[in-house]
Amino acid sequence: AGHPEAVRTRGLYKRFGQQVAVGGVDLVVPLGSFAGLVGPNGAGKTTTLSMITGLLMPDGGSVEVGGIDVWRDPVAVKAHVGVLPEGLRLFERLSGRELLSYNGQIRGIPKEEVTRRAEELLRVMDLADSADKLVVDYSTGMRKKIALAAALLHNPKVLFLDEPFEGVDPVSANTLVEVLRRYTASGSTVVFSSHVMELVERLCDWVSVMNHGHIVAQGTLAEVRGDHTLNDALLHLV
Ligand code: ATP
Fold this sequence. Notes:
Layout: E1 5-16, E2 19-25, E3 28-30, E4 34-38, H1 45-52, E5 60-65, E6 68-69, H2 74-78, E7 81-84, H3 96-107, H4 111-124, H5 140-152, E8 158-162, H6 170-185, E9 189-194, H7 197-203, E10 206-211, E11 214-220, H8 221-225, H9 228-237
Parallel strand pairs: 4-9, 4-10, 7-8, 8-9
Antiparallel strand pairs: 1-2, 1-3, 1-5, 5-6, 10-11
Helix pairs in contact: 3-4, 5-6
The structure holds adenosine-5'-triphosphate.
């Protein structure tokens, strides 16, 4: 309470046929958080993130990002949000550098600015030497890094990442973490999903725990950690 919020959903709801995937979720993320959305496979994390980022239409409820209603005002929210979807749909026949330039173009960023930002991001992601290689030849870690660079190109205030560390080699994972830490240190907000509780405990200052389409715990890492009944439940769950 009293936090300015980067994200707030109210009663977010989605069903696929008879199956309720997300059953009325009130997700809250304070501004500037490094937030983790954690829960086992099938908990509803991807479905929730997809509705928050405007990729999947909710059956009910609402989503605000930076105080803007995502489903009422999708155009206004677009400039503030960066997304790293689970199955990165990247143009594999482009080089890393071309991919960034293409993303800058569709975002309507001026060409010189795209070039400047792209070179900076390629360096930060340790991709400068691979910038002219085709994305199809990138490793999983490199793909996640180029996707993160593309998502950061327009300097969004809130970044959503679905399982960003899955299948990523340790060195690339460290780079991703460093970039995300610097990004939140500058006041921006990160929300990422994971089924690995240890990872979320190591990285996050804010945690939302999902199971069976519901938030079962939510708060600062200390609050969620201090919840012993929850910890017992998590041992069986995540
Ligand atoms: P994972 O890490 O495995 O992706 P998750 O927590 O992200 O898990 P979701 O992918 O959101 O969970 O899935 C929640 C539930 O909704 C699951 O039972 C899943 O089978 C179902 N579901 C998700 N997408 C669809 C879809 N397009 N059609 C039918 N059922 C779906």
